[in-house]
Amino acid sequence: VYALSALSGELIWKFKTVGHRYFPKGEVQGSPAAFNGLVFVGARDYNVYALDQEKGFAHWNKAFTRGWGLVNQIQDSVLYTGGADERVLVAADPATGREFWNRKMEFLIFGRFAFTDSMLFAGTTMGKLHGIDRKTGEKRWSYTTDGYLQNRLKYFKQDDAYRDDIYAIIRSNEQFLEVEFELGGIFSTPAITKDYLIVTTGEGAVYCLKR
Question: Whose CB among 59, 111, 147, 195 lies 3.0–4.6 Å from 203's, allowing a Cys bridge?
């Protein structure tokens, strides 16, 4: 993670992630978020780091069990983190990392969140858009894309767990990405305008929902 002077481009500080045996470089692939003197980044070493904005050291880190916090956003003094392989959405205190709630999301979150006063909207690469209560983490509703409805049983059981023979069907990481497109996976940030919620999907469709 690099911090540069906005005026001159001069390097202010550089932070190196710890790394993990599966991802020894600890790659940082998501956008940072900044709040109250801290910078929040998620890395592939399964950690979310809260870095000092001025000095670049870590105030705290939160470890996931098998994924990384690709999406980190601050809204109304709360840190919201969306896990990729972990498949969770977490609301936490940005000062300490203490969780307010942790919600299972069934699949990967790659896109940023959209917010109203009481709700958070998050898409997954399975082709589902979820409306989440910001205070409690309760899932109020889910909307499924046409791609999900038409193709999910090729790859998933009725409970949305992968089929037992999935590795005979999908043999490479590239094929997993193709499946996410086929399912109408949501990689983007939903847009909110008046009472409408608009989302784009990997199947080449745009959905407009009444929120």
Answer: 147
